[in-house]
Design goal:
This protein is of the alpha+beta class and about 475 residues long. Helices cover about 40% and strands about 15% of the residues.
C-alpha cells in the first residue's frame, strides 16, 4: 500500500504518500499545520495520541512522535498531560494568499510614483545608473581596509565623519550655509531625515504649516507624526507666510521647499524668507527646509539655503543625493541647529542610525575628488538641453505650460482627470505625475501633469509627446 489516510470528527484529515520525496513525519506535520492555519482545527481541539495516529496510518510510532515534537517546538500544539495533546491557543500565524490585501490609497500612489524607469518620471536622475567612479573607489582595497573595517565595533550612528566633513564643506561653498560636521547627520534619504527630525522635535498634537500644493509623502509623514497639517497656498514668491500667520500663527513647525518649490518650481523670495524666519524666532517655532535639489537649478544661480540666513537657529536643513547621484543609494543628510545636536545624536543612536559605512565612505571620496561637482555641472547641461527640447514640442502644440524646476507643468483642460491620463500613460512607458495629487485643498487644485525633464531623453521626446497628447485628446473629447 503506497497511500494511507486518517479522518476523525474534529475535521483532521491526514493523507500520506509513501512514494513522495518528503519524509512521512514531515507529511504528517504539514497536514496538521494546514488544518490549523485554515481554521479546521480550532484552538483547544484535542488531537489523537501519537500511538493512535500511528496505528491508523500504519506508520511507526516514532514517525508520528517526531511530527508532534516539531509542532510543539513551533508552539502550534501543546501536551496537557491526561487531557491529551491539543491545538495551542494562539492567533493564526499564516493567512491564505488570497487574504493579503492589495495595495490601496496612499500605498497605491507610492507604487505608481515608483514605477519605472519611465519617460517623464519625477524624482530620479538621468537613466545612466550610479556613477562608475563612485563605486570603483568603494571596491578599492584602500577603502575597505580603513575606518570602521579595522574593528568589530558598531559604526557611528550619526554617520561617518569623513562624509559629514565633506557635506559641511560642500554646503559652505554651494549653499552659502556654514555648519560644523558635528551638526550633520547621515540618513537613508529624505524620508528618513524627515522622520528623524520629527522624532527629535516631538510636536505631537501641534499645528504645522505645509505648502499647498506640496509633496504627498511629506504630508503623510506629518500626519503619521500626529501633527495637524495647515495647508498654506503657494504663489510666485513661494509659500504665502501672511496666509500662514492668519490661519495658524501658533503653529509649532513649517515645512518648506524654498530653493525650488515642489511642485510649482518657484523660489522663496528674500522678503518671505526673512518674514518666515522672523515668525519662527518670535514663536519659538521650527522650520524644516527640504532642499531636495540643492544647487541643481537650471536657470541662473541657485538661491542660498534658507538656513544660511537663520541667525536664530530655528531651521533644520534636509538634503539628499537621490536626485544628484542615484535614489538607490538611499543616502541623505540632516543639519541640526546647535541646540538640537544632542537630541539628534540620541535619536539617531537608538532609532535611526546612519546607513552602510561603505556607501558613505565611497560618497565622501566621490565628493573630495571633485567628481560630484563635475557630475552636477554635466547634469545641468544635459537637463537644460532636454528641457528645451521638451518645451519646443509643447510650443508646437499650443499647450499651456510653465517651467517648474526639473519638471514642466503642463496645464490640462478644465474637467480633465489628470490621474486617469497619468495611469493610461503608464501603460505605454510614461510616468507623468498628476498635479491634483499634490493639493491638500481640493478647491485650490487644477488638473495638470508634471513632466520630469531628467527622464526625457531628447531622442524620445517627440514620440513621447505625440503619444501623451493622443491620450489627452481622447480624454478631452470623451
Amino acid at each position: 500500500m503506497s497511500d494511507s489516510s486518517y479522518t476523525d470528527g474534529s475535521s483532521l484529515q491526514i493523507h500520506i504518500d509513501r512514494k513522495a520525496k518528503l519524509s512521512l513525519s514531515e507529511q504528517i506535520r504539514l497536514n496538521i499545520v494546514r488544518a490549523i492555519d485554515s481554521g479546521l482545527l480550532l484552538p483547544g481541539t484535542r488531537l489523537p495520541s501519537w500511538r493512535c495516529l500511528a496505528t491508523q496510518l500504519g506508520v511507526a510510532r516514532g514517525t508520528v512522535r517526531a511530527a508532534y515534537e516539531q509542532l510543539a517546538d513551533s508552539q502550534l500544539i501543546e501536551a496537557s498531560g491526561a487531557k491529551g495533546t491539543r491545538v495551542a491557543r494562539r492567533p493564526r500565524a499564516v493567512m491564505a494568499r488570497g487574504d493579503v490585501p492589495e495595495p490601496e490609497g496612499f500605498m497605491k500612489i507610492i507604487e505608481e510614483m515608483n514605477v519605472g524607469p519611465a519617460i517623464f518620471q519625477l524624482g530620479v536622475p538621468v537613466f545612466d545608473g550610479p556613477p562608475e567612479k563612485l563605486f570603483a573607489r568603494a571596491r578599492s582595497c584602500n577603502l575597505l581596509k580603513t575606518g570602521p573595517f579595522l574593528s568589530l565595533t558598531y559604526p557611528d550612528p550619526r554617520g561617518e565623519l569623513r562624509l559629514r566633513q565633506e557635506i559641511a564643506r560642500y554646503l559652505s561653498i554651494s549653499r552659502h550655509f556654514h555648519c560644523l560636521p558635528e551638526q550633520v547627520f547621515i540618513t537613508s534619504g529624505y524620508s528618513s531625515g524627515l522622520g528623524l527630525a520629527l522624532r527629535v522635535l516631538g510636536l505631537e498634537g501641534k499645528k504645522v504649516w505645509m505648502e499647498d500644493p506640496g509633496f504627498l509623502l511629506t504630508r503623510k509623514g506629518l500626519e503619521f507624526a500626529c501633527l495637524h497639517v495647515v495647508p498654506v497656498p503657494v504663489d510666485a514668491e513661494g509659500i504665502d507666510v501672511d496666509h500662514g500667520i492668519q490661519q495658524a500663527e501658533d503653529a509649532a513647525l513649517a515645512v518648506v521647499t524654498p530653493g525650488q518649490q515642489a511642485p510649482l518650481g518657484s523660489t522663496l523670495s528674500l522678503r518671505r524668507r526673512l518674514q518666515l524666519l522672523e515668525w519662527a524666532a518670535s514663536r519659538r517655532a521650527w522650520i524644516i527646509e527640504d532642499d531636495y535639489l540643492g544647487e541643481l537649478q537650471l536657470e541662473g544661480r541657485a538661491a542660498p539655503a534658507l538656513a544660511s540666513l537663520d541667525a536664530g537657529n530655528r531651521v533644520i536643513h534636509i538634503g539628499t543625493f537621490s536626485k544628484t547621484i542615484n535614489p538607490g543609494l538611499r543616502l541623505g543628510f540632516v543639519v541640526a541647529p546647535p541646540e538640537l545636536v544632542v537630541s539628534f545624536s540620541e535619536v539617531a543612536a537608538t532609532l535611526s542610525p546612519a546607513p552602510s559605512p561603505l556607501v558613505q565612505l565611497a560618497t565622501a571620496q566621490f565628493i573630495r575628488d571633485g567628481q560630484y561637482m563635475r557630475r552636477l555641472r554635466r547634469l545641468k547641461r544635459l537637463y537644460s538641453a532636454q528641457r528645451d527640447a521638451l518645451c519646443e514640442q509643447l510650443r508646437t502644440r499650443d499647450a499651456e505650460w510653465i517651467k517648474a524646476g526639473l519638471a514642466i507643468l503642463l496645464r490640462l483642460p478644465d474637467g480633465a482627470s489628470d490621474i486617469q491620463i497619468a495611469r493610461e500613460a503608464m501603460t505605454i512607458g510614461m510616468a507623468p505625475s498628476p498635479l491634483s495629487r499634490w493639493f491638500a485643498t481640493p478647491a485650490r487644485a487644477f488638473p495638470g501633469l508634471l513632466l520630469g525633464v531628467a527622464t526625457a531623453p531628447e531622442p524620445y521626446v517627440a514620440a513621447s509627446c505625440r503619444r501623451l497628447f493622443d491620450i489627452i485628446d481622447r480624454h478631452r473629447t470623451a
